Hints:
It is a single chain. The protein has 416 residues and is of the alpha+beta class. The chain is built from 16 helices and 13 strands. A hairpin with a 5-residue loop joins β7 (164-168) and β8 (174-177). The longest helix has 27 residues, at 6-32. 34% of the residues lie in helices and 12% in strands. α1 (6-32) packs antiparallel against α2 (38-58). The protein has helices at 6-32, 38-58, 84-87, 91-98, 209-214, 236-240, 244-251, 268-279, 282-285, 299-304, 307-310, 318-321, 332-340, 350-354, 368-372, 400-414; strands spanning 106-108, 122-123, 129-134, 137-142, 150-152, 154-156, 164-168, 174-177, 179-182, 187-190, 203-206, 375-377, 387-389. The protein has a five-stranded antiparallel β-sheet. A four-stranded antiparallel β-sheet has the order 2-3-4-5, with no helix packed on it. The protein has a two-stranded antiparallel ribbon with strand order 9-10.
Amino acid sequence: MRTDSPTFYFFRFLSKKFMRVLNFCVGLQKRIRRPVSPRSLAALLALATVALLAAACRQSPPIAPTVAIAPVAAMAENAFLGDAACASCHQAAFRSHAASAHANTLHTVNPALKTRWNPPLGRIARTNLTVETLGGNFVVTPDNQLERAQAVQFALGSGKSGITYTLPLDDARILEMRQSYYPRLKIWHVTPGQENIPAGPLSAVRRDGRQCIQCHAVTLPSFSLVTEPRFQGVGCESCHGAGGAHVAAMRAGNLNAGRMEKLGGWGAARLNTLCGACHGTAEKIGRMAGAEHLTHRFQPFGLALSKCFQASGDRLSCLTCHDPHADASHNARGYENACLKCHAPTAATTLAAVSTGKACPVSPKSGCLPCHMPRRKIIPAKEIPDRFADHRIAIYPPGAGEVKEASARQWMQTRP
Length: 416
């Protein structure tokens, strides 16, 4: 019998309970200090077995932890190849991207694979949940009840902030674990979006699972949410499109065929929409109640509301400040230089040629970010210190940051 099947869990549950009943009968015999007749013992065990079967029938069968990997041959025309196909010609971009958080935002978790994306074993603080291994899988159990074990298969998130563990159910839905792990802090915390779900469930069913996983993978087969390891993470083809025709043409020496569109020739609005497919566009986020509080959480949305973007002549994009093949820089001076392309008396760049903004009267050469793009907490919890820069570039009055952060916290705590 397979150790990852519901039948295995069922009989394991029965055997454990049966042994408890047997031990009870033996203990009863010792307490009354006289032997229990074989007929009486058999009757007790028969009644216990009937009761156990009735109880077991009420148990919800666990979801089998193992999910088959879909063969890439099932995907449309095998057009996607994975990052490795790009490495020989685009070595610098490939090496930089491979080390980025984007490239490492989806991983299979397995006790046999000793990776930093595996969940830590043991009890999750302030919950009744325990992470353990069973049948070659990671499982989460409530109150040490193995018959209610919930398997997890994928880690969503690079570990730069939090990691959320999931299990695909079909071609559209996933189970999302209620607690996410923050490896830098070595703590668990309620998964964003599940703040207002009662504390009981092990995980929530997300019906937008395809959209969720697609933002962590290059491509998915039409009939499954499980993709090959080479397509896990945001890859070259997530932004540049399927590379099969391009690679085939280049290898055949046909340099004029299979050309891929150069993203550097796109306008800012189009580029920001590409990034916003996962990071949040104005069209999508703007329809949400309380969206004005989320301009730090959804950066393309925040940028679209900025006068800097609106007056840039379709030139101020995510790529104005960020290298798409690397993690976001922590060098404030680099971002300030982007501001000074327009907001400096001597500005004479491509952006400035379209719209030259006023130099800052307070600090014309440095210190742009704390005033005009202040950092906000991404999760309203004291133990999670992560902050994102507010991408609605504006002149914020003193104290505006605290007010906005409090509003965002209230929105997170009261949304349905």
